[in-house]
Specification:
The protein has 345 residues and is α/β, with parallel strands linked by helices. The chain has helices at residues 28-38, 96-99, 105-111, 127-132, 148-154, 179-193, 195-205, 232-239, 248-254, 259-270, 274-292, 297-303, 309-320, 324-331; strands spanning 16-21, 50-55, 61-64, 70-73, 85-88, 119-123, 140-141, 159-160, 166-168, 172-175.
């Protein structure tokens, strides 16, 4: 007999449907990211939170990858009409989309099946498809740093940012290449269902639970000599006492270095100055406390090392573009029965 819902019980909410569009030349690694991240997101009760479906712009059949194998995709473009979120991974065979900034008739017809309000997500050069369809006009967007200049020339109405891992512009989200796609998908889970669930997915995937979208891509950064002393001890020391005033000389002393040598080594390893790194860590501490606790803004400011609520407001506004109150209201983890809407305020 079919399962029935007991009288008077509420129907469980439908799972959010993520449809991944696999185009010829797709990168297998990036194609697998959505299933790995969204497919493992569970409510506190263990219920799946997303359905992940892969489709092609053609009837079911093989799709070429950039590797030495094809993949068999069992869904045609009609799956796009069922999407709450469409995700487009990178492809190395975009043809006129990449070369001329225009969609093929076949791709245009497939994207025409999207319902109004569908959330649009791209990884790496998948953003070219969203751009060619006009979805990114007048918006900020990211892509792999090596394609950024070409992306901007091809689509001058887009505000291309080549220096970030991903950009969340509400109903349209774009990311840089490869691992940045993991960061973006975790960010979406975090935005949809809160920090605890996103962190659980990250632990299962054995990746960092959060890298800020504004973090720089790793572009032509020199690798420090492995034989030289590192600054990891100083960073661990600082992380353990973010609530305290920390001077540059204090960090340098942890490595028995002069301030000048420590600063140079730190920049070689982290790509930013010790002061910038400290501010980022304090912003991350504040974000976590805003999401996961009921502590007052004043208490969080002291715990994160900002000293005053006003100082924390200024730093969060500069880093995230929102106040602590707005951030908490937007990202605060809620019980599963009161999960937030799938849009950013």
């Amino acid at each position: 007999m079919p399962e029935t819902t007991p009288a008077g019980s509420a129907e469980p909410p439908p799972r959010h449907r993520v449809v991944v569009l696999a185009l010829d030349g797709v990168l297998p690694f990036e194609l697998g990211i959505p299933q790995r991240i969204f497919g493992r997101a569970r409510s506190p009760e263990g219920a799946r939170l997303y359905d992940v479906v892969t489709c092609s712009i053609r009837p079911p059949g093989p799709v070429r990858t950039d590797a030495d194998f094809d993949i068999l995709v069992e869904n045609g473009p009609e799956a796009l009409a069922t999407a709450d979120t469409i995700l487009i991974p990178a492809s190395y065979e975009l043809g006129p989309v990449y070369e001329e900034g225009r969609l093929t008739d076949e791709l245009a017809a497939a994207l025409g099946l999207l319902r109004p309000g569908t959330r649009l997500v791209s990884i790496c050069t998948g953003g070219y498809v969203l751009a060619a369809a006009g979805f990114l006009d007048g918006r900020p967007a990211s892509t792999h740093w090596s394609s950024a200049a070409h992306f901007q020339r091809t689509f001058p109405r887009i505000k291309v940012d080549a220096d970030v891992l991903f950009i969340d512009d509400g109903d349209v989200l774009t990311s840089a290449g490869v691992a940045a796609g993991i960061d973006l998908c975790l960010h979406i889970v975090r935005r949809d269902h809160g920090t605890a669930i996103a962190n659980d997915v990250a632990r299962r995937t054995v990746v960092p639970p959060h890298r800020d979208g504004g973090q720089a891509q790793y572009i032509q950064r020199p690798v420090p000599d492995a034989q030289l002393a590192t600054t990891t001890t100083a960073r661990a020391w600082a992380l353990a006492r973010l609530h305290e005033p920390i001077q540059l000389r204090d960090m340098a002393e942890q490595e028995s270095m002069s301030v000048r040598t420590f600063t140079r080594r730190f920049r070689e390893e982290a790509g930013i100055s010790p002061g910038q790194w400290l501010v980022r860590q304090r912003v991350e501490r504040a974000r976590h406390l805003l999401e996961a606790t009921d502590l007052s803004v004043d208490r969080i400011a002291r715990n994160a090392g900002f000293g005053t609520a006003q100082s924390m407001r200024q730093h969060l506004q500069a880093a995230l573009g929102v106040s602590p109150t707005v951030y908490r209201r937007t990202f605060r983890a809620l019980p599963a029965k009161a999960a937030p809407a799938l849009r950013t305020v």
